[in-house]
Hints:
Layout: H1 3-12, H2 15-31, H3 33-37, H4 44-60, H5 63-80, H6 87-99, H7 101-115
Amino acid sequence: xxxxxxxxxxxxxxxxxxxxxxxxxxxxxxxxxxxxxxxxxxxxxxxxxxxxxxxxxxxxxxxxxxxxxxxxxxxxxxxxxxxxxxxxxxxxxxxxxxxxxxxxxxxxxxxxxxxxxxxxxxxxxxxxxxxxxxxxxxxxxxxx
Length: 144
């Protein structure tokens, strides 16, 4: 394969563009870290701005994390629409939060590994990591 063809192939598969996209995304997440982890959600406008920030960052998200980021954003958008007096609305928000837990953990892990950005812990209803198996115990047999 020629170098020119290899360059076209790499660009089509993400190559330099994907790296640049990840760098830009990481930089924007880092710049907006405080707004992401400690948002001031006092008014409906604050909540809309928080969701819009996540949507804007989602437009920059590289393919490796795009779906998970959009899942988390969708969770925030659903939560923003809760009618606390409507049990069905509250239940939809709870279901969405539960359904996106794995994505939230994935985003956190990807940001730590790729961007060196730590957004802190992710609280989940169900543990999202496989438990480690206990160490085997020694067994002895007595002749008999």
